[in-house]
Amino acid sequence: xxxxxxxxxxxxxxxxxxxxxxxxxxxxxxxxxxxxxxxxxxxxxxxxxxxxxxxxxxxxxxxxxxxxxxxxxxxxxxxxxxxxxxxxxxxxxxxxxxxxxxxxxxxxxxxxxxxxxxxxxxxxxxxxxxxxxxxxxxxxxxxxxxxxxxxxxxxxxxxxxxxxxxxxxxxxxxxxxxxxxxxxxxxx
Amino acid sequence: xxxxxxxxxxxxxxxxxxxxxxxxxxxxxxxxxxxxxxxxxxxxxxxxxxxxxxxxxxxxxxxxxxxxxxxxxxxxxxxxxxxxxxxxxxxxxxxxxxxxxxxxxxxxxxxxxxxxxxxxxxxxxxxxxxxxxxxxxxxxxxxxxxxxxxxxxxxxxxxxxxxxxxxxxxxxxxxxxxxxxxxxxxxxxxxxxxxxxxxxxxxxxxxxxxxxxxxxxxxxxxxxxxxxxxxxxxxxxxxxxxxxxxxxxxxxxxxxxxxxxxxxxxxxxxxxxxxxxxxxxxxxxxxxxxxxxxxxxxxxxxxxxxxxxxxxxxxxxxxxxxxxxxxxxxxxxxxxxxxxxxxxxxxxxxxxxxxxxxxxxxxxxxxxxxxxxxxxxxxxxxxxxxxxxxxxxxxxxxxxxxxxxxxxxxxxxxxxxxxxxxxxxxxxxxxxxx
Lengths: 188, 434
Prior knowledge:
Structural class of chain A: alpha+beta
Pfam families (chain A): UQ_con (PF00179)
Active site (chain A): 121
Largest sheet of chain A: 4 strands, antiparallel
Structural class of chain B: mainly alpha
Order of helices and strands of chain B: HHHHHHHHHEHHEHEEHHHHH
Domain UBC core (chain A): 34-184
Number of helices of chain B: 17
Number of helices of chain A: 4
Helix content of chain B: 25-40%
Shape of chain A: globular
Helix content of chain A: 40-55%
Largest interface: A-B, 19 and 19 residues
Largest sheet of chain B: 2 strands, antiparallel
Strand order of the largest sheet of chain B: 1-2
Distance between the termini of chain B: 79 Å
Distance between the termini of chain A: 61 Å
Oligomer: heterodimer
Radius of gyration of chain A: 23 Å
Order of helices and strands of chain A: HEEEEHHH
Shape of chain B: elongated
Protein name (chain A): E2 ubiquitin-conjugating enzyme
Keywords (chain A): ATP-binding, Nucleotide-binding, Peroxisome biogenesis, Transferase, Ubl conjugation pathway
Number of strands of chain A: 4
């Protein structure tokens, strides 16, 4: 903003406006900065400990730090074993005060994952979110959810009903089939 | 000897003159805060000057200014002077006059005739040294300032005494025979050392929200820890406050999510800002207490000297005082409910009840029967709702009656008529509001 050398009271008003607007810009920029700084920290952490958790491979989008993808391995002794599932993270600007939006890009037959959209029903991604969670720990929570499905709050009713009716075998064969169909890494 | 003005060297930690200092070594005495430039007529800082801009009259000695002290010297010298000059012999006038000149030069213009008479200055520095080394009392010996600062170039040959080594700060600044000063210095030194150590320990600690080191944040305001009252997880004060004040996502419970520690989910009711991180429970308690004491001295902006009302009531950390300095006194109204639970009554508004009650079906009853019966009102207590039902004018009174009855039941108070009156007034407001 330009400040003209005019009568004194006018000058003061202009200055007040300038100060006010720059403050607003600053606070908005600050929030943006905070989420960016935190994501950058997480990025460095991921780079440093790449080999720490072989089940999770977290990659940041080249041009946008608010978009991440992750490849997670299906936990052993579950129908998802040997499958590799792709997750898409969309991080809000208010991160870490607000949870990232996560969905499965790979088809998965799981009571708490929407079969079509890949949306995940997990309390820590909704009302139990806390800023102490990181993208890495969210991935770990999703792996835990795959190992321990919660059929009482299903997003995939078919799979939930199978589990609730006690047809463990039916559920497992369905889940294994979809894992084989969609989540098997291409050989060669 | 006048001891009314606090010695600035003493206030910074060590005065080499000890008990022979012209200035007071008592913390209760006021410091000299008079701007010397203002005395001369011009202070370029103007109103921003951190020293006091008062005119010190030369004819009437003022209690708080050191110019008054120097004036006293010039008047009744050397009767008021210290015993040191008497003991040292030689030319005591020259010695003190030099000091006087040094301290008074800033107060008075150099062309002041009163000071022109004194022109007896010591020949050389060695002159002073040789004179002072003959002093009888060891407590009055002057300490070497070079040694106190770390290293004296004269070494063994120095005419001043070299102080003992202070174990905490590692400087030769303990006078061998001034016991009070030694203790004072040791205390200050220990305190400073503890603070520094705590600061060093805190350097490495990271905030769990922004994942950065708290004390390495870019701005000074951010370089503070926010301690939670109930658990020991470290955060920046800005991060934890942002999180606690962020708007809850739908379905999020404020107490179990936002007000809880992000890591252990333990509910804490307040955040304490602190520059250092604590190592023990006692240290934390000390930080919390000093924070509370500080807030106690600040007037609550909600209370506004009795003109406003503070939502925190008696639990508020800030001061609730009226304009005349009187503190607020509160009698809490305890209401005993039927089931033996005691609640503290604050401002009770009818809308609180209307939100929790569901009345709409009973409003319909009233419409059909034209009159409210106690049976309807009693059942209204259990399941009923004020929906989007359009209130008509003739219904208003009956709803008011119903609500009055309901409130009477809730409050277990026998004054039916009053409540109905209040209820009618509030209902009127409520309906217009809708």
